Amino acid sequence: TQLLEQSPQFLSIQEGENLTVYCNSSSVFSSLQWYRQEPGEGPVLLVTVVTGGEVKKLKRLTFQFGDARKDSSLHITAAQPGDTGLYHCAGVNNNDMRFGAGTRLTVKP
Amino acid sequence: NAGVTQTPKFQVLKTGQSMTLQCAQDMNHEYMSWYRQDPGMGLRLIHYSVGAGITDQGEVPNGYNVSRSTTEDFPLRLLSAAPSQTSVYFCASSYLPGTSGSADTQYFGPGTRLTVL
After folding, report:
1. Burial call B13-24: b when 16+ CB within 10 Å, e when fewer
2. For the residues B5-19, what does the mean pLDDT come to?
3. Residues of B contacting chain A (CB within 8 angstroms)
């Protein structure tokens, strides 16, 4: 059983559509991170959220940390083919980092 | 800076063989960790270290050993490889979490793809 339930696992959409990826847990985290991974490479950090209710924006990407710090979401507006990749959420408590199963996003031109 | 480097990039082993996956970082990070990535399961923490001479187990430590003799290097040893250890292995490093407990940016290496026959 994953500590962090990430959904959906696969997502295939057309360019210009919006999408949301969810990351849920019954555990409280001191912070939560979102990473993006390209084929053949390691994950690269997109954002860290720390405060319950926090919202961070990175161009067309919006990240939200739940009020109770147990869940998070990643929303992409007007997706582009360059957004294609594997997205991970990771919950952190001190030195223990737990990842969700990942969401493989494909954006078709 | 080279960042986090891993060698080898690919490796094929027979069941029962041993090998060491190398990881090095040149960012003077205290925290280093090893993950394995399997389809549908995400990244799972194997072992981590918060500084030279200090290591601890993660989520899936069985079958793996680590040591941290220097700040820069954090090798992962498979003493007797098993087919269940076929996976992609990633090493990562970062500064230690802040006083609030929030994580710093983890920098990942390019990965080692291991196949155990």
Report:
1. beeeeeeebebb
2. 97
3. 4, 31, 33, 35, 40-45, 48, 50, 56, 58-59, 90, 92, 96-97, 100-103, 105-106, 108-111
